[in-house]
Structures are given as C-alpha cells and as structure tokens.
Design goal:
246 residues, alpha+beta, 3-stranded antiparallel sheet, globular
Length: 246
C-alpha cells in the first residue's frame, strides 16, 4: 500500500474556511460569541476533533503483535484502565517497549529508519516517563498527523520554562509505529515532532519525522534552543486529564 499522504490544498482550505464561517449561527447571542472568542484554544480543539474524526483509532493489539509483545500487552491491559476520547490517540505504554524495540519493529515491516545513534536505549538517558522505570501507563496525544500547531516555533528551553509536558521519544516512536501498522501511513510528513520529554546523554533533544524523499523514519536531534515553524512538540495528556480534554 502507498505511504503517500495528500494534505489539504489551498482551494480546499478556502472552501473549508468558508464552510466553517457559514456554520456560525446568525442568531448566536453576543455573550456566547464573546465567550468563545475568549476561549479560542478550546474552540480550536473542538473543531479539530470534528475535522480529524476520520483518522482511525490505532490498533494497539496489532501494534504489540508486530513488536512480538502480544502476551505482555494482553496481560497488562487486563488490569490497565484505558480511557477514551474522540480527539486523542490513547497510547498504552507497557514494560518491555523501548525505542530500540520499536525501531526493530519498523524494520521488521520493511520500513527504513535512520537514527542519530544506533543504540537509542543507551543514548537517550533522560525521559519524563518510562514504562520500564515507572510501570505501565496510558498517555494521550491529539489525533493529528502533524504535531501540535500551538507548539511550533517553541524550543525545548522555552517549553521547559512553562512546564510543558511533552511527548517522550519512546511514546512517539510507538505512536508512529502503531499508526503505520494500522493505516500504512506515517505521522510527521510535513513537520518534525520535538520529543521535548526526552534528552540524549549529551543534552540535546530527539526529534522524529517521516522523510518522504528517502522513504524513511528519521530520528534526529535538536539543540535545546532550536526553534522553527517545522519543529514542534506534541503535548502529552495524562490518564487523569483525558476525560477532561473532551
């Protein structure tokens, strides 16, 4: 199956924008309108849920089967509460899954992966969350191909100053792998995800993207102060916050 992903055209953007404007009721009370104007981020989140509802749930059983961890997944998820939210992908992280394990899974599916270090497990020494250290957990991320728009242009240093809870490298690799085995498509086809919750041993920050020209998943790095419009973190939503993120 093709891994090419066709994104919205300028004409479609114009038509969709007009449709959204037309959907605003002409009899909307002024105070209600002003309330939403003051809650633009929440309004945007709700619109994204509607626009991205065609993106499928990730088949996590299949994902862990492809990693050779079906028994572990079934055993853990009998006890692990996995909440649902239509605007989020809920990622179950279980002991045994590591960056190296997911890279091997990709390669087992004949997907090329380039990594800054051959042994990511050894060289990514700091992670805000780690199932092999902390035990099994679930974490949510917006159901979007590209990382969160509001985080573009924000370096790891800037995100740290506002106590941003960002995706860690293992979570992102598993999320991307799960999306691939479910759809034969890739995440991060136009931008790079900054894995703001992880650090290499030298202090730099991992980043992940799909490089269509080379047809490979690219695991690179950024300096703590690096920022541009194509580099952005995915905000992590904890299990306790998932229901509130509707």
């Amino acid at each position: 199956m093709s891994t090419a992903l066709t994104t919205i055209t300028s004409g479609q953007m114009k038509d969709l924008s007009a449709a959204l404007v037309q959907a605003i009721p002409t009899d909307l009370p002024s105070d209600v309108a002003q309330n939403w104007i003051g809650r633009k981020t929440e309004l945007g989140d709700k619109i994204r849920i509607i626009l991205y509802e065609c993106l499928p749930d990730i088949n996590w059983l299949l994902t862990y089967q492809k990693l050779g961890m079906e028994a572990e997944f079934v055993g853990v998820t009998k006890k692990l509460v996995i909440p649902t939210n239509p605007g989020l992908w809920i990622c179950p992280m279980i002991p045994g899954v590591t960056p190296n394990k997911v890279v091997a899974g990709y390669r087992g599916q004949k997907v090329k992966v380039w990594t800054y270090h051959d042994d990511l497990d050894a060289h990514v020494t700091k992670n805000d969350r780690d199932p092999n250290r902390d035990g099994a957990y679930v974490i949510g991320f917006r159901r979007t191909i590209e990382a969160d728009e509001e985080n573009k242009g924000k370096s790891a240093n800037v995100l740290a100053q506002v106590n941003h809870k960002g995706i860690v490298l293992c979570e992102h690799l598993l999320l991307g792998f799960g999306y691939y085995v479910t759809t034969y498509q890739h995440l991060d086809v136009k931008t790079r995800t900054l894995c703001a919750g992880s650090r290499f041993s030298g202090g730099c920050v991992p980043s992940v993207a799909w490089f269509s020209d080379y047809r490979e998943v690219f695991v690179g790095w950024c300096n703590l102060g690096d920022s541009d419009g194509h580099l952005r973190s995915r905000s992590a939503v904890s299990a306790s916050e998932i229901a509130l993120a509707r």
